[in-house]
Structure formats: C-alpha cells, structure tokens
Design a protein that fits this description.
The structure is a single chain. With 546 residues, this protein is an alpha+beta fold. The strands form 8 sheets. The protein has a 7-stranded mixed β-sheet, sandwiched between helices. A hairpin with a 5-residue loop joins β14 and β15. The longest helix is centred in the N-terminal third of the chain and has 20 residues. The radius of gyration is 24 Å and the shape is globular.
Length: 546
C-alpha cells in the first residue's frame, strides 16, 4: 500500500510552491539566503524539486533513471564507490581480488552492514542481488540491469563475508560496474517479491543512510535518516548517521517554478535549471553544480537499417553538418565541453577523435551531392522523389534537449534536410521512442567502465544493437568482443582507441557535446554536497546552515 505524505508538510510545500513565483519577483537578489561557513551540524529538512519521478519503482527497472536514481542513491548502498574520475574505492565490499585472466573475482564484505529491517548485508544477500542484476526476471516484468556484464556466470557465498563471482570470459570491468547506479543493494526479502509489489516503494528495503518514510505516485517521496547507519565509503570525510534529518523529493514539472522556489527560500534544490541562468544564480549567491558523468557523450546513435542513414555518406554528412561550437555558445555555458569521441573524456580509456566528425558544412554538402541527394528550388534535398528528411525526438531526460534539437534542426536544414521535431513527456517517450525504433536516438547513457560497450554496440550475446548493424560489421564485432574479453588493461585500452575510431569513421554515432545531464541549483544554506561518477547529488555528507 502506498503511504501518504505527512499532511502538514505537503500543505506547506504546495502552498509555498504556488507562491514561489510571486515571492521571487518581490525579492531582490540580496534577499536570498547567503548562508555561512562553519562546522557541520546535524538536523534540518531538505526539499529537492524534480521534474519527474518516473513511472515505476521496481528497483531493477528504475535504478538507472535520471529521476528515481536520486532516491535510490540515498536508500541503498553499493559494493564499491566510483568517483567522477572513475576511481574505485571500497564500500560494502572492503576488498577484492581476481584471478589472472579476470574470470573469477572474490569480494570480501564489510562487517556490521545491515538492511533497514535489521537483516545483514551478507554474502547470501549479495549473491541474490548479483543474480537479479544479471538476469532479472523477464517473465515477471523485472529487467536485468543495463550494462551489467553479460559474461556473468554465477556467484556463490563462500562464507557469510565472502562472495566468489565467476564469468564465462575475462571481465575486467566487473568491479567498477559494481559502482554503477543500477547496482544497488536491496534486501532479499524485497527481491523475492513479485514485480507488482516491488513497484510499491514502501516495500523496498535497502542498506543506505535513509529509509522511505512516505511516498505518493508521481508526486513526492520523503526520506528519513537511519540513526544506526555507520558504513559510508571511507573516501567520505563524514562517517555515522547522515546529518540532514529528512529529504523530500517533490515533483514540480515547470522549470521556472522550481528555480523560483529556491530563489524565494521555499525549497533548497532545483533540478535541471536552464544552463543559461546559471551565471545569474551564482551572482545572486546561490550554488550551482554541473557535474559530468562517466558515460557516453550527448549525441545520436544512428540506425543504419533506416534510410537514408543506411548510406555511409549521409551519416558522415550528418556528422560534419553539426556546428558544435554554435550549440555550446547558444544553449550552454563554458561549463560544457565539446565532444572528443562518443565517450566522455573523463572515462578511463577515452581518446580524442574529434577530427573525424569536425564541423565542415562544405564537406557535408559534398557528401550529400555524392550520395545523389539533389537540392530543389526551396533548398531541400530529394532523391528519386523522396525527400531527405528526419524526425528528431528530444530526450526528456536531458533538460536542454529540445533547445539543442531546435538548433540542430536549423543546421541540418542548412545542408538540405527536411527536419521535424516531435516531443514527448518522460512516460510517453519511454513507450514510443526506443533505440532501433527511430533513425536517430538521442543518447544520454552513463557507464562506469568502457568494457561494457560490448553489450551495446551489436546484438552479439543479446546486446542492444544501437546502430542496427547486428553482426554485419566484423570489425565492430571483433573490437567490441575483444574489449569485453580482454584480461590485460593495456591491450584493452589499445582496442578501445581503435573501436572509437571505427565507430566514428563509420558514422555510427554522431557526437554533439560532452554531457552534463544533471544540473543543480542549490540554496547557499546547503553545504558539503558530493557527486558520484554518474553525477548524482548525494546528501549523506551534506548539512544545512543558517
């Protein structure tokens, strides 16, 4: 059964949000709380305004969401912690080792860790999670965790504090993937429930520093801290219970209302403000954060099975037709970086291949001419009576996607494309727009370790087949499988460099910019927020000042 908010809190937040825009107009910049420095203190309640809370709370199906992931990051722990540079450090797994060919790993668990119902996070619990992450329960509507190694074979509890994990082939990326935002530790009691019961967030038992106090579907989630929590990653300066008493995630779909509410003191954090407003917020004394996550850059995965992108020349014209400098200067700020590959530059093993897709409108025009697409009197191109057309679907998980796509549409029209833009809300988008269902899919995908790309690029081993090539490109298959099966890190890095070059030379992927998917506007009274390798804000160490 879904529980409701404390009535008083809901009333206070609702009234505050309705008044926020008016209040913000009346407040001068100097009226915003500036907070102060000082020693961290315990206590206080934090209100986080978010544009959505998704359409399900089944852990496997929602943990990688840009929205629900915020909640899971406080209710659950992970076996390892991964920071924004890809550095792995102990968490619930206090140490690990592997055999020489990276097909068997041994995890040693931290003693004394418990789920919020008091049961231990022991080897049996970890095995139950690993099995479900890898396989899911498709017949019950529970999906495997995206990007979990497809080479997973089995795991066993050697003793209550030791887990042995086996893979069918070398899997160097296993340990980093344990820090991926999908790899959340959930009580076996929750995992044993059918999907319909897992969809009720109140049934989810984690080992994190907060528990679910109440929730309302597509409206709000209230978390309350666990007083007995004492096993945070050692890289955090703070240990013991969280400092902030409660965190309320409140859905406010209108971006201006979210930011106005923070400006007026009605809320503490607004998710996904406009990038162009960040400088003015900072000038007023507010904190902004634009952490980059480890993963793919923002760009288009091109479906090579869909005309006209079955022609390499058209794909390459698309690459060279995008003016990325104009996109950054128009939509973004200097916090954003140009893409150098299809991987973010902070991903270990990413290399610079930007020359292969550099903006060159004349080259784009030449490629389309060579492919037989002829300009008409109105400037649009056609071939054998068929217009050169494409429909863009802005990705609602990226706040700037619509603005970026509108500018891209102008740039593509300049080289002869007919472009339409079709937008959906989050729920409709996930139902109608999938990789392979549209010619261009706008990617916003985080990864922890580049070895997981093998599960994306082709359909080998039930891969996601991002580019619609199946296994028809032997070099792509060879490189992807070689990276996945590498047991030597140096050899894998060399293959990864070659893979990046091949994907971009074949124009399977059209990079736009390095991605900042999660943008935060924060009250100056909130201090010591941390951001992990997938750019989620974590309030375990945070505290609220005056």
């Amino acid at each position: 059964m879904r529980t409701s908010h404390t009535a008083r809190r809901l009333f206070r937040i609702a009234i505050g949000l309705l008044a926020a825009t008016v209040l913000a107009t009346a407040c001068s910049p100097g009226a915003a709380q500036t907070g102060g420095s000082g020693e961290p203190r315990a206590g206080g309640d934090l209100t986080f305004l978010i544009d959505s809370l998704g359409d399900t709370w089944i852990p496997n199906n929602s943990a990688i969401s840009s929205f629900q992931g915020h909640v899971w990051g406080h209710v659950t722990d992970k076996l390892v912690h991964v920071d924004e540079t890809g550095t792995v450090s102990p968490w619930v797994a206090q140490s690990w080792d592997r055999n020489d060919d990276a097909t068997e790993f041994t995890l040693r668990l931290r003693p004394g860790v418990t789920f919020s119902d008091g049961t231990p996070v022991d080897a049996a619990a970890v095995v139950a999670n690993l099995d479900l992450w890898a396989r899911g329960r498709p017949d019950d509507g529970i999906r495997p965790i995206g990007l979990f190694p497809k080479t997973y074979d089995s795991a066993e509890a050697v003793d209550p504090a030791t887990v042995r994990v086996r893979f069918s082939s070398p899997t160097l990326g296993f340990v980093p993937t344990l820090g991926y935002h999908g790899s959340i530790l959930i009580s076996p009691a929750t995992l044993a429930r059918p999907a319909a019961e897992q969809a009720d967030l109140s049934n989810s038992i984690g080992s994190g520093p907060y528990v679910v106090e109440s929730w309302r579907d597509d409206d709000s989630v209230v978390l309350r801290k666990r007083d007995d929590y004492d096993w945070a990653p050692e890289v955090f300066e703070h240990q013991g219970a969280a400092r902030i008493d409660t965190i309320t995630y409140k859905v406010v779909s209108e971006q201006p209302v979210r930011t106005s509410s923070v400006r007026s003191g009605q809320a503490d954090v607004a998710y996904n403000p406009s990038p162009k407003e960040l400088e003015s917020f900072r000038a007023e004394g507010f904190t902004t954060a634009t952490p980059r996550y480890l993963g793919f850059v923002n760009g288009f995965a091109v479906n090579t099975a869909a005309a006209p992108f079955d022609d390499l020349r058209v794909r390459q014209a698309l690459q060279h037709g995008l003016d990325r400098d104009e996109i950054i200067s128009t939509v973004y700020t200097p916090d954003w970086l140009p893409a150098e590959s299809f991987l973010q530059s902070n991903v270990p093993g990413a290399t610079d291949h930007s020359a292969s897709f550099a903006f060159d409108r004349a080259r784009a025009e030449q490629l389309l001419d060579e492919a037989g697409w002829v300009r008409g009197a109105d400037g649009t191109r056609a071939k054998d009576g068929t217009p050169l057309s494409v429909t863009l679907h802005p990705n609602p998980y990226l706040a700037t996607s619509t603005a970026v796509d509108e500018l891209i549409a102008q740039q593509l029209r300049a080289i002869g494309f007919t472009v339409e833009i079709q937008s959906f809300d989050v729920v409709t988008y996930t139902q109608r727009v999938e990789i392979g269902s549209v010619p261009l899919y706008e990617v916003t995908r985080s990864i922890i370790d580049a070895g997981t790309v093998s599960g994306i690029l082709t359909d080998a081993d039930n891969g996601e087949n991002w580019f619609g090539v199946g296994q028809s490109d032997p070099k792509l298959v060879e490189l992807a499988s070689g990276i996945a099966g590498a047991s030597d890190p140096a050899a894998r890095d060399a293959q990864l460099d070659e893979l990046q070059a091949h994907v971009l030379d074949q124009a399977y992927f059209v990079p736009i910019t390095q991605i900042v998917q999660r943008i935060y506007l924060q009250s100056p009274r909130v201090h010591d927020v941390t951001y992990n390798g997938v750019a989620y804000a974590n309030y375990y160490t945070a505290w609220i000042g005056d």
